[in-house]
Design goal:
Length: about 280
């Protein structure tokens, strides 16, 4: 029986609202080692590299072995357990963000089939290992980790396309266009009507596709994106709070401070000291 070990990393704070890594690692489990039943607040993908175990979701159980992956979705009641005689070794990554749902929808996982057997596991294993190897508290560590996460998801998306070439999801295209518009125009005085017009849909339809693909409304996404950019400026520039407010599309400093505090829990004047304590 292989020697047990666990190497893991947990990220306690991030400003990356598009896609951020919550945790990652690799583990050789003890016999019958289990997690759950419980729920996660993020997406979680495991790749089994050796041994066997069982994954249970929505009352269904799957027996898994080398080359199998299983997906845990946010707020989904799951449990998983290593085999008593041949316990599994797996690599994993936990992530979430505005882009997460759209990316996961393009992988081989579905609600009916939350497990997937990959034909070639080595590239996926290497991508997961690279995520872990790039771990660290600085922004350049997070950028490298997210970069390897994109490569990992890209490999899964490619395998899904090769197995079942699907027509692009129109609602996802609307969301992608809206997000690009926000990224290029967030510093201006734009409204949700402006965003909807830019992608060619009604305001109500934009709301529906955002809730379906992103899990939040367009106005919440726009606000969170602006506040995320404000956090970057607070950390990396010497601009005043009033200058930062205007730079991210708020033309009333006091309103900016109220929204910032509601989103981050502290006013912008105390933001840097708050993250230094975490």
């Amino acid at each position: 029986m292989a020697e047990t070990y666990k190497q893991s990393f947990k990220q306690h704070y991030t400003d990356n609202v598009e896609l951020s890594i919550f945790n990652c690692g690799l583990q050789s489990c003890a016999p019958s080692h289990a997690w759950g039943p419980g729920v996660r607040d993020h997406y979680l993908i495991h790749l089994v590299v050796s041994g066997h175990g069982q994954y249970t979701v929505n009352g269904r159980s799957f027996t898994l072995g080398p080359g199998d992956l299983f997906l845990v979705k946010p707020n989904q009641l799951v449990s998983y357990c290593a085999d008593a005689n041949d316990p599994w070794e797996y690599y994993w990554v936990g992530f979430n963000g505005a882009f997460a749902n759209k990316l996961v929808q393009q992988t081989p996982f579905t609600d009916q089939s939350p497990v997937y057997h990959c034909g070639e596991a080595q590239p996926l294993k290497q991508a997961l290992r690279s995520i872990y190897d790039c771990r660290g508290p600085e922004s350049h560590h997070e950028a490298a980790m997210v970069g390897h996460l994109y490569l990992f998801l890209s490999s899964l998306m490619k395998q899904a396309h090769e197995c079942d070439p699907r027509v692009s999801n129109t609602s996802s295209q609307y969301v992608h266009g809206a997000i690009k518009y926000i990224q290029f125009n967030y510093s201006h005085d734009i409204s949700i009507d402006d965003i909807a017009k830019a992608v060619g849909v009604s305001r109500s339809h934009l709301y529906r596709v955002f809730m379906s693909n992103v899990g939040q409304s367009p106005i919440d996404y726009l606000t969170n994106y602006r506040i995320g950019e404000a956090c970057n400026l607070l950390r990396d520039s010497k601009l005043s709070i009033a200058e930062i407010a205007v730079s991210v599309g708020f033309f009333d400093q006091f309103y900016f401070s109220r929204v910032f505090k509601k989103t981050k829990g502290v006013p912008p004047s105390r933001y840097l000291s708050s993250i230094e304590k975490t």
